[in-house]
Amino acid sequence: MDRDYNISVAMATFNGEKYIKEQLDSILVQLNKNDEVIISDDGSTDNTVSIINSYNDSRIKLINGTHNGIKKNFENAINNCNGKYIFLSDQDDIWEPNKINKVLETFNKYHCSCVIHDCVVFNSDNNEIIYNSFFSFRKSKKGIIKNIIKNSYIGCCMAINSNIKDKILPIPNDIYMHDQWIGLICEKNNGSIFINDKLIRYRRHNNTVTNLKHNSILKMIKYRICLIKRIIGD
């Protein structure tokens, strides 16, 4: 797609040496020369940083994380992005070749704050499909109340308009995850669009930071109360 603006990819890394090259390769091939990949590394002790530096690609900008966990690591990456649209990225998935173009087409059509797409969830150990559609598994759709009760927002499938940065940052410390917060703030401000295209292969493995299981009932209630207070107060 021809465009007169730049985009950013915000990636948070920590000890991701096993899969980060495959992920970066799938991203870089889709970027223009003036786009950027902002990688906030939270103190990796493996070869993650060496692999990133081996690219010697001016589009990759490696910055030091805050060492305060994944929420603040993503906040740091997003805060340093300069593109018109910001694509969130984990360190271990695989982007489909048409991901960026399809998401940008959606932004251009709907002029929304967030685009979220479907994905295939697979087991990295044996490449077997766990869920052929994350949306179907999670019954994903927009709606603030719906997504407070049962979250549909998954960061690795999201992109946001940069004009929403001031509203989503800083990410509150007392909420569960950054992606739900970002999605809900976008819904309040010019909306989110869900598209059914499966634009990444979402990798599940033993070291995955997030999981698809529920917390305890008490924790779920606590996080939702905090989230509601934050959303109302935004």
Keywords:
234 residues, alpha/beta, 9-stranded mixed β-sheet, globular
Produce the secondary structure layout:
Blueprint: E1 7-13, H1 20-28, E2 36-41, H2 48-54, E3 60-64, H3 70-79, E4 85-89, E5 94-95, H4 99-110, E6 114-123, E7 129-131, H5 134-138, H6 144-149, E8 158-161, H7 165-168, H8 178-188, E9 192-204, H9 217-233
Parallel strand pairs: 1-2, 1-4, 2-3, 6-9
Antiparallel strand pairs: 4-8, 5-9, 6-7, 6-8
What would you note in describing this structure?
The protein is of the alpha/beta class and 234 residues long. The chain has a single domain, classed as Spore Coat Polysaccharide Biosynthesis Protein SpsA, Chain A (Alpha-Beta Complex), CATH 3.90.550. 35% of the residues lie in helices and 24% in strands. The chain is built from nine helices and nine strands. The protein has helices at 20-28, 48-54, 70-79, 99-110, 134-138, 144-149, 165-168, 178-188, 217-233, and strands spanning 7-13, 36-41, 60-64, 85-89, 94-95, 114-123, 129-131, 158-161, 192-204. Strands 1, 2, 3, 4, 5, 6, 7, 8 and 9 form a nine-stranded mixed beta sheet that branches. Helix 1 (20-28) links the parallel strand 1 (7-13) and strand 2. It is globular. The chain starts with 6 loop residues before the first strand and ends with a helix.
